[in-house]
Amino acid sequence: MTASHALAANATWSRALTLPPLGNLDAYISAVNRLPMLSAEEEQAYARKLRDENDLEAASRLVLSHLRLVVSVSRQYLGYGLPQGDLIQEGNVGLMKAVRRFDPAHGVRLVSYALHWIKAEIHEYILRNWRMVKLATTKAQRKLFFNLRSMKQGFKADAGAADDTHRDTLSAAEIDAMARELAVKREDVIEMETRLAGGDVVLDPTPADDGEAAFGPIAYLADTRHEPTALIESQQRDRLASEGIAAALDTLDARSRRIVEERWLKVNDDGSGGMTLHELAAEYGVSAERIRQIEVAAMKKMRHALAAYA
Fold first, then answer.
1. Domain 3-129: which CATH number of 3.30.450.20, 3.40.190.10, 1.10.357.10, 1.20.120.1810
2. What is the dotted CATH code of the domain comprising 228-309?
3. pLDDT single digits (tens) 106-136
4. For the residues of the chain, what is the DSSP string, one character each?
5. How much is the average pLDDT of 98-104?
6. pTM of the predicted protein model
Protein backbone atom coordinates (compact mmCIF):
# COMPACT_ATOMS: atom_id res chain seq x y z
CA MET A 1 0.00 0.00 0.00
CA THR A 2 1.44 3.39 -0.96
CA ALA A 3 1.75 6.26 1.48
CA SER A 4 -1.11 8.14 -0.20
CA HIS A 5 -3.34 5.07 0.02
CA ALA A 6 -2.46 4.63 3.68
CA LEU A 7 -3.31 8.26 4.43
CA ALA A 8 -6.63 7.93 2.61
CA ALA A 9 -7.46 4.74 4.48
CA ASN A 10 -6.64 6.31 7.84
CA ALA A 11 -8.83 9.31 7.02
CA THR A 12 -11.71 6.99 6.11
CA TRP A 13 -11.35 5.05 9.35
CA SER A 14 -11.16 8.28 11.37
CA ARG A 15 -14.52 9.33 9.95
CA ALA A 16 -15.89 5.84 10.62
CA LEU A 17 -15.06 6.09 14.30
CA THR A 18 -17.64 8.90 14.59
CA LEU A 19 -20.67 7.01 13.28
CA PRO A 20 -24.06 8.71 13.78
CA PRO A 21 -26.18 7.33 16.63
CA LEU A 22 -28.64 4.50 15.99
CA GLY A 23 -31.50 6.88 16.74
CA ASN A 24 -30.95 8.35 13.25
CA LEU A 25 -31.30 4.99 11.52
CA ASP A 26 -31.11 6.16 7.90
CA ALA A 27 -27.97 8.18 8.54
CA TYR A 28 -26.41 5.28 10.44
CA ILE A 29 -27.08 2.76 7.66
CA SER A 30 -25.79 5.18 5.04
CA ALA A 31 -22.58 5.72 7.01
CA VAL A 32 -22.11 1.99 7.61
CA ASN A 33 -22.46 1.21 3.92
CA ARG A 34 -19.67 3.71 3.13
CA LEU A 35 -17.18 1.98 5.43
CA PRO A 36 -14.31 0.28 3.58
CA MET A 37 -14.22 -3.50 3.40
CA LEU A 38 -11.08 -5.28 4.56
CA SER A 39 -9.16 -7.56 2.29
CA ALA A 40 -8.38 -11.07 3.50
CA GLU A 41 -4.79 -10.03 4.24
CA GLU A 42 -5.84 -6.94 6.20
CA GLU A 43 -8.40 -8.96 8.16
CA GLN A 44 -5.79 -11.56 9.07
CA ALA A 45 -3.30 -8.89 10.11
CA TYR A 46 -5.79 -7.08 12.37
CA ALA A 47 -7.05 -10.36 13.84
CA ARG A 48 -3.50 -11.42 14.76
CA LYS A 49 -2.79 -8.03 16.35
CA LEU A 50 -5.95 -8.38 18.43
CA ARG A 51 -5.14 -11.94 19.45
CA ASP A 52 -1.47 -11.44 20.17
CA GLU A 53 -1.33 -7.84 21.39
CA ASN A 54 -4.93 -7.16 22.47
CA ASP A 55 -4.87 -4.18 20.09
CA LEU A 56 -8.18 -2.34 20.51
CA GLU A 57 -7.61 -0.31 17.35
CA ALA A 58 -7.41 -3.58 15.40
CA ALA A 59 -10.63 -4.72 17.06
CA SER A 60 -12.34 -1.48 16.03
CA ARG A 61 -11.27 -1.97 12.41
CA LEU A 62 -12.66 -5.51 12.40
CA VAL A 63 -15.96 -4.46 13.95
CA LEU A 64 -16.52 -1.39 11.81
CA SER A 65 -15.80 -3.21 8.56
CA HIS A 66 -18.56 -5.74 9.36
CA LEU A 67 -21.30 -3.40 10.58
CA ARG A 68 -22.97 -3.57 7.16
CA LEU A 69 -23.33 -7.33 7.72
CA VAL A 70 -25.34 -6.67 10.88
CA VAL A 71 -27.62 -4.26 9.00
CA SER A 72 -28.18 -6.88 6.31
CA VAL A 73 -28.98 -9.62 8.82
CA SER A 74 -31.34 -7.36 10.79
CA ARG A 75 -33.55 -6.94 7.70
CA GLN A 76 -34.34 -10.66 7.81
CA TYR A 77 -36.13 -10.19 11.15
CA LEU A 78 -38.27 -7.12 10.46
CA GLY A 79 -41.40 -9.31 10.24
CA TYR A 80 -41.49 -9.67 14.02
CA GLY A 81 -42.55 -6.07 14.49
CA LEU A 82 -39.49 -4.99 16.49
CA PRO A 83 -37.58 -1.76 15.71
CA GLN A 84 -34.74 -2.32 13.27
CA GLY A 85 -32.52 -0.06 15.35
CA ASP A 86 -32.89 -2.44 18.31
CA LEU A 87 -32.19 -5.46 16.10
CA ILE A 88 -29.04 -3.78 14.77
CA GLN A 89 -27.91 -2.89 18.27
CA GLU A 90 -28.27 -6.49 19.44
CA GLY A 91 -26.57 -7.75 16.28
CA ASN A 92 -23.65 -5.41 16.94
CA VAL A 93 -23.26 -7.00 20.37
CA GLY A 94 -23.04 -10.39 18.67
CA LEU A 95 -20.50 -9.02 16.20
CA MET A 96 -18.27 -7.75 18.99
CA LYS A 97 -18.43 -11.14 20.73
CA ALA A 98 -17.43 -12.79 17.45
CA VAL A 99 -14.49 -10.44 16.95
CA ARG A 100 -13.28 -11.12 20.48
CA ARG A 101 -13.39 -14.91 19.91
CA PHE A 102 -12.19 -14.98 16.29
CA ASP A 103 -9.00 -16.97 15.68
CA PRO A 104 -7.26 -16.15 12.37
CA ALA A 105 -5.41 -19.48 12.53
CA HIS A 106 -8.57 -21.34 11.52
CA GLY A 107 -8.29 -19.98 8.00
CA VAL A 108 -11.86 -18.73 7.61
CA ARG A 109 -13.15 -15.24 6.98
CA LEU A 110 -14.60 -13.30 9.88
CA VAL A 111 -17.90 -12.82 8.02
CA SER A 112 -18.61 -16.58 8.15
CA TYR A 113 -17.72 -16.83 11.83
CA ALA A 114 -19.56 -13.67 12.90
CA LEU A 115 -22.82 -14.58 11.15
CA HIS A 116 -23.65 -17.17 13.80
CA TRP A 117 -23.00 -14.79 16.69
CA ILE A 118 -25.01 -11.97 15.13
CA LYS A 119 -28.03 -14.17 14.50
CA ALA A 120 -27.80 -15.77 17.94
CA GLU A 121 -27.88 -12.39 19.67
CA ILE A 122 -30.83 -11.19 17.55
CA HIS A 123 -32.68 -14.44 18.22
CA GLU A 124 -32.31 -13.98 21.96
CA TYR A 125 -33.56 -10.41 21.72
CA ILE A 126 -36.63 -11.45 19.73
CA LEU A 127 -37.49 -14.22 22.18
CA ARG A 128 -37.17 -11.80 25.10
CA ASN A 129 -39.27 -9.04 23.61
CA TRP A 130 -41.59 -10.26 20.86
CA ARG A 131 -44.26 -11.46 23.32
CA MET A 132 -44.86 -10.63 26.96
CA VAL A 133 -45.27 -14.39 27.56
CA LYS A 134 -42.26 -16.18 26.09
CA LEU A 135 -43.13 -18.36 23.11
CA ALA A 136 -40.12 -20.60 22.83
CA THR A 137 -38.26 -22.39 25.58
CA THR A 138 -36.73 -25.63 24.28
CA LYS A 139 -34.25 -25.86 21.41
CA ALA A 140 -36.85 -27.55 19.19
CA GLN A 141 -39.42 -24.86 19.93
CA ARG A 142 -36.94 -22.12 19.11
CA LYS A 143 -36.15 -23.77 15.78
CA LEU A 144 -39.85 -24.05 15.06
CA PHE A 145 -40.44 -20.43 16.11
CA PHE A 146 -37.92 -18.99 13.66
CA ASN A 147 -38.72 -21.34 10.76
CA LEU A 148 -42.51 -21.54 10.86
CA ARG A 149 -43.09 -18.08 9.42
CA SER A 150 -40.74 -18.50 6.45
CA MET A 151 -41.95 -22.04 5.72
CA LYS A 152 -45.56 -20.88 5.83
CA GLN A 153 -44.77 -18.15 3.30
CA GLY A 154 -43.15 -20.80 1.11
CA PHE A 155 -46.30 -22.93 1.21
CA LYS A 156 -48.39 -19.93 0.18
CA ALA A 157 -46.05 -19.12 -2.69
CA ASP A 158 -46.23 -22.71 -3.94
CA ALA A 159 -50.01 -22.55 -3.81
CA GLY A 160 -50.00 -19.34 -5.82
CA ALA A 161 -51.41 -17.17 -3.02
CA ALA A 162 -50.33 -13.61 -3.71
CA ASP A 163 -51.77 -12.25 -0.49
CA ASP A 164 -51.53 -13.53 3.09
CA THR A 165 -55.23 -12.90 3.50
CA HIS A 166 -56.09 -15.58 0.94
CA ARG A 167 -55.19 -18.43 3.29
CA ASP A 168 -54.02 -17.88 6.84
CA THR A 169 -54.16 -21.41 8.22
CA LEU A 170 -51.94 -24.38 7.48
CA SER A 171 -53.44 -27.47 5.90
CA ALA A 172 -53.02 -30.91 7.47
CA ALA A 173 -50.48 -31.89 4.78
CA GLU A 174 -48.44 -28.72 5.38
CA ILE A 175 -48.41 -29.32 9.13
CA ASP A 176 -47.15 -32.86 8.58
CA ALA A 177 -44.48 -31.67 6.15
CA MET A 178 -43.30 -28.97 8.55
CA ALA A 179 -43.16 -31.39 11.47
CA ARG A 180 -41.03 -33.84 9.44
CA GLU A 181 -38.62 -31.20 8.18
CA LEU A 182 -38.10 -29.57 11.58
CA ALA A 183 -38.12 -32.87 13.51
CA VAL A 184 -40.85 -31.83 15.92
CA LYS A 185 -44.23 -33.23 16.84
CA ARG A 186 -47.27 -32.41 14.73
CA GLU A 187 -48.96 -31.04 17.86
CA ASP A 188 -46.04 -28.67 18.42
CA VAL A 189 -46.51 -27.17 14.96
CA ILE A 190 -50.23 -26.66 15.58
CA GLU A 191 -49.61 -25.07 18.99
CA MET A 192 -46.92 -22.70 17.72
CA GLU A 193 -49.04 -21.69 14.72
CA THR A 194 -51.94 -20.89 17.06
CA ARG A 195 -49.73 -18.82 19.35
CA LEU A 196 -48.13 -16.92 16.50
CA ALA A 197 -51.52 -16.18 14.97
CA GLY A 198 -52.76 -14.57 18.16
CA GLY A 199 -52.36 -10.80 18.31
CA ASP A 200 -50.97 -8.81 21.20
CA VAL A 201 -53.51 -7.29 23.58
CA VAL A 202 -52.82 -4.09 25.49
CA LEU A 203 -53.88 -4.82 29.06
CA ASP A 204 -53.82 -1.23 30.24
CA PRO A 205 -54.33 1.13 27.26
CA THR A 206 -53.43 4.79 27.41
CA PRO A 207 -56.27 7.34 27.53
CA ALA A 208 -57.76 8.41 24.22
CA ASP A 209 -56.90 11.74 22.63
CA ASP A 210 -60.23 13.23 23.73
CA GLY A 211 -59.42 12.55 27.36
CA GLU A 212 -61.83 9.65 27.71
CA ALA A 213 -60.61 6.74 29.76
CA ALA A 214 -59.64 3.79 27.54
CA PHE A 215 -61.08 0.40 28.47
CA GLY A 216 -58.79 -2.60 28.49
CA PRO A 217 -58.74 -6.18 29.78
CA ILE A 218 -56.99 -5.05 32.95
CA ALA A 219 -60.38 -3.68 34.05
CA TYR A 220 -61.91 -7.12 34.32
CA LEU A 221 -58.74 -9.17 34.88
CA ALA A 222 -57.82 -7.37 38.09
CA ASP A 223 -58.91 -9.21 41.26
CA THR A 224 -59.41 -6.69 44.05
CA ARG A 225 -60.98 -9.12 46.48
CA HIS A 226 -57.71 -9.60 48.34
CA GLU A 227 -56.29 -6.12 47.78
CA PRO A 228 -55.46 -4.67 51.23
CA THR A 229 -57.19 -1.31 50.74
CA ALA A 230 -60.33 -2.95 49.35
CA LEU A 231 -60.39 -5.41 52.27
CA ILE A 232 -60.12 -2.61 54.83
CA GLU A 233 -62.88 -0.60 53.14
CA SER A 234 -65.12 -3.66 53.01
CA GLN A 235 -64.54 -4.37 56.70
CA GLN A 236 -65.32 -0.75 57.56
CA ARG A 237 -68.59 -0.89 55.57
CA ASP A 238 -69.61 -4.10 57.31
CA ARG A 239 -68.83 -2.64 60.72
CA LEU A 240 -70.77 0.56 59.99
CA ALA A 241 -73.73 -1.46 58.70
CA SER A 242 -73.93 -3.46 61.90
CA GLU A 243 -72.22 -1.96 64.94
CA GLY A 244 -72.32 1.60 63.60
CA ILE A 245 -76.07 1.61 62.87
CA ALA A 246 -76.80 0.06 66.25
CA ALA A 247 -74.70 2.72 68.02
CA ALA A 248 -76.39 5.51 66.02
CA LEU A 249 -79.88 4.20 66.88
CA ASP A 250 -78.96 4.23 70.56
CA THR A 251 -78.53 8.02 70.38
CA LEU A 252 -82.24 8.50 69.46
CA ASP A 253 -85.25 8.75 71.73
CA ALA A 254 -87.83 5.95 71.56
CA ARG A 255 -90.22 7.70 69.15
CA SER A 256 -87.51 8.84 66.74
CA ARG A 257 -85.92 5.38 66.79
CA ARG A 258 -89.22 3.65 65.99
CA ILE A 259 -89.93 6.05 63.12
CA VAL A 260 -86.49 5.42 61.60
CA GLU A 261 -86.78 1.66 62.02
CA GLU A 262 -90.27 1.56 60.47
CA ARG A 263 -89.33 3.83 57.58
CA TRP A 264 -85.83 2.49 56.72
CA LEU A 265 -84.91 -0.73 58.48
CA LYS A 266 -88.02 -2.86 58.58
CA VAL A 267 -88.76 -5.39 55.82
CA ASN A 268 -91.89 -7.53 55.93
CA ASP A 269 -92.09 -11.12 54.79
CA ASP A 270 -93.73 -10.08 51.53
CA GLY A 271 -90.81 -7.74 50.73
CA SER A 272 -92.67 -4.53 51.57
CA GLY A 273 -91.33 -1.90 53.93
CA GLY A 274 -92.63 -0.66 57.28
CA MET A 275 -95.26 1.89 58.08
CA THR A 276 -95.95 4.98 55.95
CA LEU A 277 -95.85 8.59 57.19
CA HIS A 278 -99.64 8.70 57.43
CA GLU A 279 -99.83 5.43 59.40
CA LEU A 280 -97.24 6.70 61.89
CA ALA A 281 -98.99 10.07 62.08
CA ALA A 282 -102.29 8.37 62.93
CA GLU A 283 -100.58 6.29 65.64
CA TYR A 284 -98.90 9.27 67.35
CA GLY A 285 -101.79 11.68 66.75
CA VAL A 286 -99.76 14.20 64.77
CA SER A 287 -99.60 15.28 61.13
CA ALA A 288 -97.65 13.38 58.51
CA GLU A 289 -95.47 16.50 58.06
CA ARG A 290 -94.50 16.33 61.74
CA ILE A 291 -93.47 12.67 61.35
CA ARG A 292 -91.33 13.69 58.38
CA GLN A 293 -89.64 16.44 60.41
CA ILE A 294 -88.87 14.00 63.22
CA GLU A 295 -87.46 11.55 60.67
CA VAL A 296 -85.22 14.21 59.12
CA ALA A 297 -83.87 15.31 62.51
CA ALA A 298 -83.28 11.68 63.56
CA MET A 299 -81.39 10.88 60.35
CA LYS A 300 -79.21 13.96 60.78
CA LYS A 301 -78.38 12.92 64.35
CA MET A 302 -77.56 9.39 63.18
CA ARG A 303 -75.21 10.69 60.48
CA HIS A 304 -73.22 12.63 63.08
CA ALA A 305 -73.08 9.53 65.27
CA LEU A 306 -71.89 7.36 62.36
CA ALA A 307 -69.19 9.91 61.43
CA ALA A 308 -67.89 9.85 64.97
CA TYR A 309 -68.04 6.04 65.06
CA ALA A 310 -66.08 5.72 61.79
1. 1.20.120.1810
2. 1.10.10.10
3. 888 999 999 999 999 998 888 777 654 455 5
4. --HHHHHHHHHHHHHHTTPPPTTSHHHHHHHHHTSPPPPHHHHHHHHHHHHHH--HHHHHHHHHTTHHHHHHHHGGGGGG---HHHHHHHHHHHHHHHHHH--GGG---HHHHHHHHHHHHHHHHHHHHS-SS----SHHHHHHHHHHHHHHHHHHHHHT--SGGG--SPPHHHHHHHHHHHT--HHHHHHHHHHHHSPP--SSPPPPTTSPPPP-THHHH---TT-HHHHHHHHHHHHIIIIIHHHHHTTS-HHHHHHHIIIII---TTS--S--HHHHHHHHTS-HHHHHHHHHHHHHHHHHHHHHH-
5. 92
6. 0.49
